[in-house]
Amino acid sequence: MRRMNRLETIYHVAYLAGGPDRVTDTAVAGALERKAARLGSSGVLRRTSAKPADPFVLAAVESLPKVRIARVREVLRESEPMRALRAELLAGGLILPAVHWRRAWHAVTRREVWATKAGERMLFLARKDPSLVTGAAGAVALGSLGAHPDRRLARLLTLTPPSARDRAQVAVGKPPDGLTAVVDCSAG
Q1: Bridge-partner residues for 105, per DSSP?
Q2: Could you tell me if 27 and 12 are in contact, meaning their C-beta atoms sit under 8 angstroms apart?
Q3: What are the residue boundaries of the structural domains of the chain, listed by start?
Q4: Rounded (10°) CA dihedral 150, 109, 60, 27
């Protein structure tokens, strides 16, 4: 087993801080920073023509034609870069295998990752490493999408699509005067 004496990438930090979904959020923040993706006003991500070299950003961008971040998380959760990252952290002794903690604690805590003491120490040291944790991706890696420095992007990335029940219901009819009548039938 190879022990790690330093976290090598922002994705190591993100995985220890919040698991696979945090890694995906970090990759999306990186894609937005590098202009490999853009975010629409409805919270939908779209790819651009840029071709990123970073494997996580590339995996995130390849999952896009036009999706929300929840779909990107689904795609990246079991992607090759994520499996390799998980294996590296396990081999380095920084996280526990899921079988050790899932049955006993997952239902109570809803944590996705259990860092070892060594993993917690590495995360603590990484928080103070300006060469590793920088920009919007660094903020997201350590603090989730809500920590994105661009408050507008943070709000758009955390939007949830309205359910069918929450969407406005509109009735359109033809009254006798020939004009179109539009009536809002939504609750509230």
Answers
A1: none
A2: no
A3: 10-161
A4: 40
Strands 37-39 and 45-47: antiparallel
Q: What is the pLDDT of residues 94-141, one digit of tens each?
A: 998 766 555 544 444 445 678 889 999 999 999 988 888 999 999 999
Averages of pLDDT over each 10 residues, the chain, 188 residues: 77 94 94 90 87 87 80 89 93 80 48 82 91 92 93 87 52 54 49
Reported pTM: 0.77
At 106 the pLDDT is 47
d(CA 187, CA 185): 7
Query: How much helix, strand and coil, in percent to the nearest 5, is found in the chain?
Result: 50, 10, 40
Whole-angstrom distance, CA of residue 183 vs CA of residue 53 = 51
| Token pair belonging to 115 | 């860092």
